[in-house]
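Researcher: Next entry in the queue.
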Amino acid sequence: MPLEMDAILTAFGLRPLDGSPARRAGRIGQVRVTCTHIGMGPPATRSALTRILDGSNTEGDPVDHVMIAGICGGLDPSVPVGTLVVPELVVDHSTGRSYRHTPPAGTAVDGRLVTTEQATLDTDLSRRLYEDGFVAVDMETSAVAEVCEARGRPWSVFRCIGDRLVDGLLDERVLAMANPDGSGNEEQIGRLLADDPDLSPRLEQLARDATVAASRAAEAAASACRALAGVADG
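Model: Structure for this entry, 234 residues:
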């Protein structure tokens, strides 16, 4: 989502690339970092990452590590919003294929993350995923692992829980307001709030939680990138 992109730009100190308004670049030590917005869901992720890895890297430098950072949905009721998730295992829900996560040295991993094709408020599905041992759910990470592993590229993921179904802040109307890039449809939001003013505090809480979670995930990714670059953290 755009707020995830903003958090990454801040954490990494990236700037716009000439001739490529959708991408940002910078350096950590001697390592060049390029960031691009991929949108929501596995298809958009596969498409964006394939373009990058298969020759459209405009800077001419090979991509030797791919990171994805942002928010995720919490499945474990005992794990609070704002908790960083660096999973040991990532599973594609649609195929059942699993990917072992090996982030940069020194980054601790714990738990399992599942990637679904779309956002859902299906409480039965969420319960089953939790019972299967998943702590969180997102819509992109397994696609990153799939594309990278097919090309022999290392990858890592840094997620932070931005919402939980158990908290009751989300409903189908809120999900329907999302644009393909993850931003909110302002016109729809305005109409919805006019019809249901009591929804405003919930949306404000969701926005606050997502902003904090995106920042924590981005900062964790930047710390791992500094480790790759051999730069002291902090």
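Model: The first helix runs from residue 2 to 12.
Researcher: Noted, moving on.
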